[in-house]
Amino acid sequence: MDKLLIRGGRALQGEVRISGAKNAALPELCAALLTDEPVVLENVPHLQDVATMVTLVRNMGVSVERDENRVRIDAAKLSSPEAPYELVKTMRASVLALGPLLARFGEATVSLPGGCAIGSRPVDQHIKGLQAMGAEIVVEHGYIIARLPQGRSRLRGAALRTDMITVTGTENFLMAACLAEGETVLENAAQEPEITDLAEMLIAMGARIQGHGTSRITIQGVERLHGATHQVVADRIEAGTFLCAVAATGGEALLRHGRADHLEAVIDKLRDAGAQVEAVPGGIRIRAQGRLTAQGFRTTEYPGFPTDMQAQFMALNAISRGAAQVTETIFENRFMHVNELLRLGAKIQVEGKVALVEGVERLSGATVMATDLRASASLVIAGLVAEGETVVDRIYHLDRGYDRMEAKLRGLGADIERIK
Ligand SMILES: CC(=O)N[C@H]1[C@@H](OP(=O)(O)OP(=O)(O)OC[C@H]2O[C@@H](n3ccc(=O)[nH]c3=O)[C@H](O)[C@@H]2O)O[C@H](CO)[C@@H](O)[C@@H]1O
Ligand SMILES: C=C(OP(=O)(O)O)C(=O)O
């Protein structure tokens, strides 16, 4: 199993290119199932999750060609509208196949996503919403089995309001509604930039969508969608992770293609902490000197502070001046990195949803274990500032969602290597 070996203590300097967003590329690969014409995605990141999604759609009989960051998907034919457990267990985003399959082929069998380290993550809202659009759905033997009633060839538009804001739920409804009969209104919709990016791709495919980027999205269903070429939006979480890494090491860097307008909550906190961060043409520039000041925050849906940045910012807080309270409101079990950060010398106390971080002057290298994607990133950041050697074990989590992270960090001057 691959590990990362980091020798801490170097300030990150230079330029890094931010890749396309995992959380946009995954639904967009599924959106290509909505048409029988080829769809081309550009700026697709090199990630294990993308490879898994490609395997998943190929397994359905769809043709997928990849050339560097360009992926061409041709779903003219489909042999089986099925997402088996073996492929779904490592990646929750596979549930995004449900809406498009049901909308275009009238049936779908998708395994319930596997258990996840950060919380129970049910998909009840996805099921309820698609049922309201006319699908018959049963959950049996770990599979969501969905089909249209006999005699019906299309889902029907509906007014949907989920109990909580759900990102992939909104995406499933958005994709399903594009081919439904009549109008669908999504209230309480997620507003993440990845939703907007998906909506723009669907519009390029001929969908009629309004209100994306707000909490109320309206979709007028059309009979068919056509092919399109779409550029995947930059990964705001990868950019935020690099911002925290540069800030923690007291460095200076330009994040090319980074979108400051998608990261306002994180950038505000970095500025309050004492870093200089500015949007520049084509990217984000950051400069930090000495120890920053720890910042309290509470994770919430976009445009609030993203839960996917909580662990990385906590690593930064761990070596800042002062103390700060971090509250996680989205997932019930997303402090798994805390115990590992303690092994590096951090001072953090967790009580329920709240972690109290007391910044320390130094961390000391040790072997730590990655437990989920962003937890892994927080351990890498801590390793970059810790004295001596840090080994981050189980980095398959990191490979799910970061595009060649260690190579990018080496490009910024970090002493980091992948070992077996
Ligand atoms: C592939 C992808 O885009 N993943 C992102 C997506 O995950 P994902 O879309 O899975 O997260 P949701 O927005 O759905 O989850 C928000 C909350 O709602 C709950 N919930 C959700 C659906 C449902 O049917 N029932 C239910 O109870 C979840 O358990 C969680 O507590 O948004 C999360 C929140 O920003 C991010 O951390 C993930 O990186
Ligand atoms: C939780 C995450 O992803 P996923 O929903 O794919 O598990 C994440 O990107 O931090």
Keywords:
about 425 residues, UDP-n-acetylglucosamine1-carboxyvinyl-transferase, Chain, four-stranded mixed β-sheet, alpha/beta, single chain, 2 domains, 24 strands, pyruvate, 14 helices, binds phosphoenolpyruvate, UDP-N-acetylglucosamine 1-carboxyvinyltransferase activity, elongated, binds uridine-diphosphate-N-acetylglucosamine, cell wall biogenesis/degradation
- Please compute the radius of gyration using only Cα atoms: 21 Å
Which residue ranges are poorly predicted, with pLDDT under 50 across at least 5 consecutive positions?
none
Q: Indicate the percent of residues in helices.
A: 25-40%
The profile of the biggest β sheet is: 4 strands, mixed
* DSSP summary, beta strand count: 24
CATH superfamily of the largest domain: Enolpyruvate transferase domain
Categorize the overall geometry. elongated
CATH architecture of the largest domain: Alpha-beta prism
Mean pLDDT over the residues: 97
